[in-house]
Amino acid sequence: LAGVASEMCVVMVSFLDEAVGSKKGTLTRETLKTTIADGAAKRVRPVFMTAATTFIGLIPILWSTGTGADVMKRIAAPMVGGMISATVLTLLLIPAIYSLFRGWELRGEGE
Q1: Among 16, 24, 94, 99, which residue has the least CB neighbours within 10 Å?
Q2: d(CA 60, CA 108)
Q3: For the whole model, what pTM was predicted?
């Protein structure tokens, strides 16, 4: 779970860096916000697909009734909650924090 969550966040930040880097010469606060929103919007489907594959892999474990199912359900349930929180973190919080840091850099450059 930690590996998948960190990978989704790192890919989001690198994608946002690439999108902002392409507009480096004409970067203002307004273009920064629209560029970050556009870059994050392009990552929505890949992030949801990553989370969906993890959910699909955990469904048989959550619905199993065989030997050891009680132990495995206790492991799989927090992973489902963790994937939900990692998806929300990646899609909402990471672009917001990225926007704050890039906004501070713009202020430091004397916009």
Answers
A1: 24
A2: 52
A3: 0.80
